[in-house]
Amino acid sequence: MKKVNIIGIGMSFDTVTREGIRAVESSEVLLGAARMTAAFPDFKGEIYNEYLSDAVKKIISESEHETFSVLVSGDTGFYSACEKLCAALSEYEVSVIPGISSLNYFFAKLKTSWQDAALLSCHGRDGNIVETVRRNKKTFVLTGGNIPKLGEKLCDAGFSVLKAYVGENLGTAEERI
Known about the structure:
Mean pLDDT: 92
Oligomer: single chain
Number of strands: 7
Largest sheet: 5 strands, parallel
Strand order of the largest sheet: 3-2-4-1-5
Helix content: 25-40%
Number of helices: 7
Strand content: 15-25%
């Protein structure tokens, strides 16, 4: 039976766990977005810059190889492609190797805990940031180039004086907090 590792790489190669690196090294095929596969320039097997579940399944099903690693951003359990990949690849032996989530990383950089934070994604989806902020002391929001729009919504709702931290390009050389 073909073995597939779904590996959360965190924000960059620097945040991939050792378990994730070992899984990649033991694979014959590496799949993922180009920015993720580029983190493994010395990989000796085949590389496919593909991460959508149907395309990944097709590549694996048509391959003669037995071991695969699929890279996903961040953590496998936090707004990740992992869930769809697991469903699509259910006929194979799938292992999930989590990465460091942007949530964990960001709060560590702020030197504060996140156990009392509300979690919201406004990255490619609608999230009710106003109600989430209104009901919680701390709110962590995944964004996708929409920070000014989210800020405008908060100001329109009366949150014109609000302490906010923004993290950009976390885990990379271009990181800004």
